[in-house]
Specification:
Elements lengths: L1 H46 L3 H14 L4 H20 L3 H17 L4 H17 L3 H17 L3 H17 L3 H17 L3 H17 L3 H17 L3 H17 L3 H17 L3 H17 L3 H17 L3 H19 L3
Helix pairs in contact: 1-2, 2-3, 3-4, 4-5, 5-6, 5-7, 6-7, 7-8, 7-9, 8-9, 9-10, 9-11, 10-11, 11-12, 12-13, 13-14, 14-15
C-alpha cells in the first residue's frame, strides 16, 4: 500500500511536467512557423533589392530560430549586398556597418573562408575611403593569407595595393613601397594591365614622398604608357597630373607645362569643369614661373569664366586676386 501511494505521488508530480512540455512544444512550433514566415518575407524583399526590409525580417527570423543556419546565412547575405549598394552610392559609413555585421555573422557560424575574405576585403576598401588606415590594415592583413591559400591572385594584388595606399597615408613609406612592389609583381604575373598601372602609379607616389623624384617619374611614365595602351582616360589623367606636379616641384617648368597642357583637353572631354579650372590655373601658374605674364593672364581669365559659371565663389575670389596682382605687377613697369 505504501509503495502504491508513493507511486501515485510520482504520477501526480509528473503530470504537470507533461502538460508543461506540451505547452513548450506548442510555443516552439509557433515560433518556428513565425520565423519561417519572416524568412520568406525577408527572401522576397531581398529579391526586390529591398535590403532594409530584408535585414529587418531576416534578423527577426534568426532571433526566433537561432539554430537555423540558413536564416543566418541569408541575413549575412542581406547585410553584405546592402553594404555593396551603399558603397556604390558612396555611403561609406553605413556600408562599413553592414559589412561588419555580415562578417560577424559569418565568423560566428564558421562559414567559408571565401565569404570571410569578401567581407574583410570590403571592410578594408571601405575603411580606406573613410581614411581609417589602421582599420584598413587590420582587415586586409587578415584577408591576405586567405587569398594566398585559395590562390586568388587578383584579390591578393588588390589587397597588397590597398595596403600600400594605407601605409602611404600613414607616412610608412618603406612598407608602402614593399606592398606596392609585391602588388606589381602579382599584377604582371596575371597580366592585369589595369592593376599594373595602379601599382606603378602608387610606387611613383611613394618615391615622390621619399624625395626620389627621378624614380617617381620613371614609374609614372611606365604607368602612363599602360593607361594609354588600355585607353583609360581617367587613369591617364591621374598619372599626367602626378607627372606635371613632380616636374613643377623640381622647377622643370617647361616639362611641367607640357604635361599640364595634356591634362586640360582630357578634363574638357570628361566634362569635369572643376578639373578644367585646376588645369587652367596650373598652366597659368607655370607660365608665371616662366615669366610669360600675357599667357598667365589669358589662362587665369578662362579659369575665372568657368568659376563664375559653376558658382565657385571661393576659387573665383582667389583667381580675381591673382589677376589684380598681375595687373599691378605690369603697372609698375615689370
Amino acid at each position: 500500500m505504501q509503495s502504491f501511494r508513493a507511486l501515485g505521488c510520482c504520477i501526480l508530480l509528473l503530470a504537470p511536467c507533461v502538460v508543461a512540455v506540451g505547452v513548450s512544444a506548442k510555443v516552439a512550433n509557433a515560433a518556428e512557423r513565425t520565423a519561417a514566415s519572416l524568412e520568406r518575407q525577408g527572401e522576397a524583399a531581398f529579391q526586390k533589392a529591398d535590403f532594409v526590409r530584408a535585414v529587418e525580417y531576416l534578423t527577426r527570423a534568426a532571433q526566433l530560430a537561432p539554430a537555423q543556419v540558413s536564416y543566418q546565412t541569408k541575413l549575412s547575405n542581406a547585410h553584405f549586398w546592402w553594404a555593396r549598394h551603399l558603397q556604390a552610392h558612396f555611403h561609406y559609413n553605413d556600408a562599413l556597418h553592414h559589412f561588419k555585421a555580415a562578417y560577424a555573422i559569418e565568423k560566428a557560424h564558421r562559414r567559408s573562408n571565401a565569404a570571410l575574405d569578401a567581407d574583410l576585403t570590403n571592410i578594408g576598401y571601405t575603411s580606406l575611403q573613410l581614411g581609417r588606415y589602421e582599420e584598413v590594415l587590420r582587415s586586409l592583413q587578415q584577408a591576405l593569407p586567405i587569398q594566398r591559400e585559395f590562390k586568388d591572385w587578383r584579390g591578393e594584388a588588390a589587397t597588397l595595393n590597398n595596403m600600400g595606399v594605407a601605409y602611404l597615408h600613414q607616412s610608412r613609406y618603406q612598407e608602402a613601397l614593399r606592398s606596392c612592389q609585391q602588388a606589381l609583381t602579382v599584377q604582371r604575373a596575371i597580366k592585369n594591365r589595369r592593376g599594373e598601372a595602379d601599382a606603378l602609379n602608387n610606387i611613383g607616389e611613394t618615391y615622390k614622398k621619399l624625395g626620389r623624384s627621378q624614380e617617381a617619374l620613371r614609374h609614372y611614365q611606365q604607368a602612363l604608357t599602360i593607361e594609354r595602351e588600355i585607353k583609360d582616360q581617367r587613369g591617364e589623367l591621374r598619372v599626367l597630373i602626378n607627372i606635371s606636379e613632380t616636374y613643377y616641384n623640381l622647377s622643370r617648368h617647361k616639362e611641367a607645362l607640357r604635361s599640364f597642357q595634356l591634362v586640360l583637353p582630357i578634363q574638357r572631354e570628361l566634362k569635369n569643369r572643376w578639373g578644367e579650372v585646376d588645369a587652367l590655373d596650373n598652366i597659368g601658374q607655370t607660365y608665371y614661373e616662366l615669366g610669360r605674364s600675357q599667357e598667365v593672364l589669358r589662362y587665369f581669365q578662362q579659369a575665372l569664366t568657368i568659376e563664375r559659371a559653376i558658382k565657385d565663389r571661393k576659387d573665383e575670389v582667389t583667381t580675381l586676386s591673382n589677376i589684380v596682382r598681375l595687373h599691378r605687377y605690369h603697372d609698375k613697369g615689370h
